[in-house]
């Protein structure tokens, strides 16, 4: 396996100073990343998830060289990011969903022209890459618009294009769909899938949206309190987390709780009933059975969100079991 990204017992400890009375300050250490090891092969698309404050952004910042690890060994494309940040910058692309890398007051195209020069991208390559991004991310009508006037979804697409103009081999995305509507999310996901399929770009994706992961990543890593809790297929995460999906059923009238094992009714409100079922089970036979046996008006399936999966994963795991989840 060509290990393109390699982390070996990487740690990041922040020293924070807290006011503890008049003149007195207390020093405290925050172990944001706590001995994390993993490798990502070239061309893989991996989800990196976990609750708020888990250490995801800190990991990504170390992978770009913005932050230096407190301990451990880290390599991206054979490069030590914090030592050779500039050299690495030519080979990686980064999108921080919470913060734009575009020039706020300039038309979008001017930011791209600046990047063209900053990265010394050959003219033909720059034009090809820009044309492709403009087409696939539907930026045509937006190039002359100042970034501050773009909607969040438009800005995010603009940011993704900016990260790709120099054709990086790896793309780090830190919450690229945060705050986007359904259509914008679909556009961004479709684009990332194509990028990975066609160019074999390695992608590390941080998100709170489990659908991003379901639609894009065959592999997911879960971190919490700076530790890697799980590394494997998404389906396996559902098993480890014993997570549940929810079926929301609208009946023609109020009826006794629906009887449809392995689902069980968790809530009833008039003609509407909520049924939970194990996330690893297929919804199709369950839906078919309920439709055949009950007077159905409407029905929808709700996916468990990542926070719930993780919460379950902890509640359900005996000490040591979480460790076992990491192979
Ligand atoms: N520069 C910093 N100085 C001190 N502490 C920091 C710094 N950056 C991050 N931390 C702390 O490190 C921990 C991990 O933060 P990080 O931003 O990596 O979390 P995250 O997983 O990206 O969370 P979120 O989902 O909220 O974005 C948190 O406790 C955070 O407060
Ligand atoms: Mg973050």
TrEMBL record:
Q: Which residues cross the membrane?
A: none
Which first-to-last residue range defines the signal peptide? Answer: none
User: Which locations, inside or outside the cell, does it occupy?
Assistant: Cell membrane
**Superkingdom of the source species:** Bacteria
Identify its membrane topology class. Peripheral membrane protein
Q: Which UniProt keywords apply?
A: Antibiotic resistance, ATP-binding, Nucleotide-binding, Transport
What GO molecular function annotation could you give as one example from this UniProt entry?
Answer: ATP binding
**Which Pfam families is this protein grouped with?**
ABC_tran (PF00005)
The ABC transporter domain is annotated at 5-250
- What name does this protein carry? ATP-binding cassette domain-containing protein
